[in-house]
Write a structure and sequence with these properties.
Layout: H1 2-25, H2 29-40, H3 43-48, E1 51-61, E2 70-79, E3 82-89, E4 96-101, E5 106-108, H4 118-125, H5 128-131, H6 148-151, E6 154-162, E7 165-173, E8 181-187, E9 193-202, H7 210-215, E10 219-233, E11 236-250, E12 253-268
Antiparallel strand pairs: 1-2, 1-12, 2-3, 3-4, 4-5, 6-7, 7-8, 8-9, 9-10, 10-11, 11-12
């Protein structure tokens, strides 16, 4: 009888642990978001931030072109729903980037030749990422996760392993849809936002015959944001290293560029000129 009792106890323990494990794996997206917000700071600390600014060193590496890396400075500013991103570099053919959202309209700067960069084209095609404050994550005061309910987005959740580490994932489908599949990654132990992926796949088209069609490749565009080196800033646990990777492959070849921002200055609730959020303002 004692053996039977021990056996029953073992079985019940295993079932309990299994049930707990399965439950942990099936967190609803709203639960993941809520735990993520707790990881940023207390509700009071988050609510106290009305505007936010992050400044730091920037480095751009042209992975596919093998060009010399460009260096400079980056500024990210936000106030309410308004955002500004400014990048200044020491490269003649790529002096930097600017885009802004003034609460109603997104503006994106052109380069010296009058054309946008590939990243500028991405922002233009995925303007929702700026309007809804996805781009930049918690480095933006109006970070999309702060108020999911008002955005009326469809969310899905799951888990995914990257480089041997498993993350909770939230699939973000904005109202009206998007050409991009958007996935946010959260660390399992801390619920910090570690990564966002934007991916768009387009068919290469149909050839004039079956043999030609088989030679036409798909066009895959992927932009990845990664966040690391989390440290406290005025009661908020914010990333101090922010990386962007742009890659595109297709019939015309491939291109890959990486931006790395090491943020070393933060400011909160500072007065900001409205022109800050309109790069076309005079």
């Amino acid at each position: 009888m004692k053996s039977f009792g021990r056996f029953t106890t073992v079985i019940l323990t295993v079932l309990f642990l299994t049930a707990s494990f399965v439950s942990a794996q099936k967190l609803k997206p709203e639960e993941i978001v809520a735990k993520h917000l707790e990881s940023l700071g207390t509700a009071e600390a988050r609510a106290a931030v009305k505007s936010q600014m992050a400044i730091g060193d920037a480095k751009v590496t042209f992975v596919s072109q093998k060009n010399m890396a460009a260096q400079g400075r980056v500024v990210m500013a936000s106030s309410g729903p308004k955002n500004f991103f400014g990048l200044q570099l020491n490269a003649m053919d790529y002096p930097g980037e600017k885009f802004s959202y003034n609460g109603t309209k997104t503006n994106i700067s052109a380069l010296m030749n009058g054309k946008r960069s590939v990243f500028g084209d991405f922002v233009d095609a995925n303007e929702m990422a700026v309007r809804e404050s996805l781009l930049g994550g918690a480095l933006v005061s109006s970070w999309a996760m702060n108020d999911i309910a008002s955005k009326k987005v469809k969310l899905g959740s799951g888990t995914k392993k990257l480089d041997g580490k498993e993350y909770y994932t939230v699939n973000y489908n904005p109202k009206g849809g998007s050409d991009f599949d958007i996935t946010l990654f959260f660390e399992k132990d801390t619920f910090r936002h570690a990564r966002t992926e934007y991916k768009r796949t387009k068919s290469g088209g149909i050839g004039t015959n079956p043999n030609q069609s088989s030679q036409i490749t798909q066009n895959v565009l992927k932009v990845t944001e990664t966040y690391s080196d989390f440290r406290d800033e005025k009661g908020l646990m914010l990333p101090h290293v922010y990386k962007l990777n742009y890659s595109e492959t297709g019939q015309g070849g491939s291109i890959e560029i990486e931006w790395e921002y090491n943020l070393n200055e933060f400011a909160f609730n500072q007065p900001m000129d409205e022109k800050t959020f309109d790069i076309n303002a005079k």
